[in-house]
Design goal:
By secondary structure, the chain is an alpha+beta fold. It has helices at 10-20, 28-34, 88-102, 127-135, 159-167, 180-190, 195-201, 248-262, 276-283; strands at 3-4, 46-51, 54-66, 69-79, 107-110, 122-123, 139-150, 170-174, 209-214, 217-224, 234-239, 267-270, 286-297.
Length: 298
């Protein structure tokens, strides 16, 4: 049987995740963010499986409201490849589902647990994962896409574009701690699901959010390190509809990518993308990873 995850387990769990999911890269701080760092963290939904005292399996779950329903999300599930075909993954998934039912969840989903998610679904190339979910009677219900922006030759200086925005009466700058209330109020107008991610940017010093202001009102924003911190993760980004003619989205996007480049990253992940054409035009982003989303009635 499994036992509850402890913080001291994270180095061993990191090794399991990196072996189980070679298309991704895990480190201790990232796994801490995904588990103990989740605002909805529940110790009973984070499990490890051991063999002779060594961790060989790991599952992390969380309960969130989604479309007015209580939903249980499996955020991560990993089994050491040397211990596959022994039912460990199915057992961990089943245990999470049982706990979700006890907590009143009506559905279970896989990985797309925004805010604070690792990936927006299961990468379809993880064949063992897709087979497990088929066995567990999950239904594939959608596709999500990540883009990747090449930063190798991406410019750092965007002062001329900032000046052009200022000529239109728009101020572009990094958000200050004092901008938190106004920024969150603006996000709440159009993108309520992004509030936790934008709020997370104010926990960094400096704040990892750039904003556009018109008549001293925040009307647009772009973030980085709001999720999957220190992985080159971009977003979210948005501009209020009535202010989309000023070029605010383009410049705040570029400023965030420039900061990611300064961190030493040669590429940036633009996750869970809708407006592919916008990012292709603004920063040359290309289609990168495809994820399948899954749901199961409980």
């Amino acid at each position: 049987m499994s036992r509850l995850l402890q913080e001291k387990d994270l180095p061993a769990v990191t090794l399991v995740c990196n072996r189980a999911m070679p298309l991704d890269h895990f480190f201790v701080e990232l796994l801490h963010e995904k588990t103990f760092g989740d605002n909805n963290y529940d110790k009973n939904l984070n499990l490890v499986e051991e063999n002779d005292g060594a961790i060989v399996g790991f599952a992390s779950g969380v309960v969130r409201q989604r479309k007015g329903e209580k939903v249980g999300f499996t955020k991560l599930l990993a089994v050491n490849p040397d211990f596959r075909e022994k039912g460990i993954g199915f057992q961990l998934l089943s245990e999470l589902e049982a706990k979700f039912r006890e907590l009143g969840c009506v559905k279970a989903r896989i990985m797309d647990s925004a805010p604070n998610y690792f990936m927006p679904g299961l990468d379809y190339r993880y064949t063992e994962g897709t087979c497990l979910l088929q066995k567990a009677k999950y239904t594939r219900d959608g596709v999500s896409l990540n883009l990747i922006a090449d930063l190798q030759y991406f410019p750092i200086d965007h002062s001329e574009e900032i000046r052009q925005c200022e000529e239109k009466g728009v101020q572009i700058r990094r958000a200050l701690p004092s901008d938190k209330e106004a920024s969150l109020a603006m996000v709440a107008r159009e993108w309520t699901s992004w509030i936790p991610e934008v709020e997370a940017t104010f926990r960094h010093d400096p704040v990892t959010l750039f904003i556009g202001l018109k008549d001293n009102q925040v009307v647009g924003f772009s973030a980085y390190d709001s999720n999957n911190v220190r992985t080159g993760w971009f977003g979210p980004m948005g501009v209020l509809p009535e202010y989309r003619k000023f070029g605010i989205g383009q410049i705040v996007c570029k400023l965030c990518l420039a900061e990611i480049k300064k961190q030493g990253f040669h590429t940036s992940v633009i996750p869970w993308v809708g407006p592919v054409r916008f990012y292709s035009k603004v920063c040359g982003a290309r289609n990168d990873r495809t994820f399948w989303t899954y749901e199961k009635e409980l």
